[in-house]
């Protein structure tokens, strides 16, 4: 598994990957985007500013630990895309 954390791209009034408040299961799902904007895979929030995805998803997005991936929340259409740092591969 690979951990991601919000690092950039959040609006000034947002403090987490998906914004404030409790999320439903579907609301905790995020898509990891490849540089061309296609979906490389999915991940799941585990806290306000942390989530997990599989290492092969990060690699499919052309990234590795220490890099950043763009993520979006398909079930939360008003939530902006954000950049997330790839923290670790376990």
Plain-language structure description:
It is a single chain. With 90 residues, this protein is mainly beta. Helix content is 7%, strand content 40%. It contains one helix and six strands, in the order ββββαββ. The chain has one helix at 55-60; strands at 2-8, 29-33, 39-45, 50-53, 68-72, 82-89. A six-stranded antiparallel beta barrel has the order 1-4-3-2-5-6.
Taking strands numbered 1, 2, ... along the chain, how are they ordered across the largest sheet? 1-4-3-2-5-6
How would you spell out the order of helices and strands? EEEEHEE
Please summarize the sheet with the most strands. Answer: 6 strands, antiparallel, barrel
Strand residues, percent: 35-45%
> What is the residue-averaged pLDDT?
81
Oligomer: single chain
Instruction: State the low-pLDDT regions, or none.
Output: 8-15
Tell me the overall shape: globular
Number of helices: 1
Integer tally of domains: 1
Instruction: State the share of residues found in helices, binned by percent.
Output: under 10%
| Broad structural category | mainly beta
Distance between the termini: 5 Å
Question: What Rg, in angstroms, do the CA atoms define?
Answer: 12 Å
Secondary structure tally: strands: 6
């Amino acid at each position: 598994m690979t951990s991601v954390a919000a690092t950039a791209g959040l609006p000034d009034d947002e403090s987490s990957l998906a914004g404030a408040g409790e999320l439903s299961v579907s609301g905790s799902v995020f898509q990891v985007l490849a540089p061309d904007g296609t979906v490389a895979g999915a991940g799941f929030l585990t806290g306000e500013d942390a989530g997990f995805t599989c290492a092969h998803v990060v690699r499919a997005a052309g990234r590795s630990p220490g890099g950043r991936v763009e993520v979006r929340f398909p079930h939360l259409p008003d939530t902006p895309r954000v950049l997330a740092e790839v923290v670790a591969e376990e």
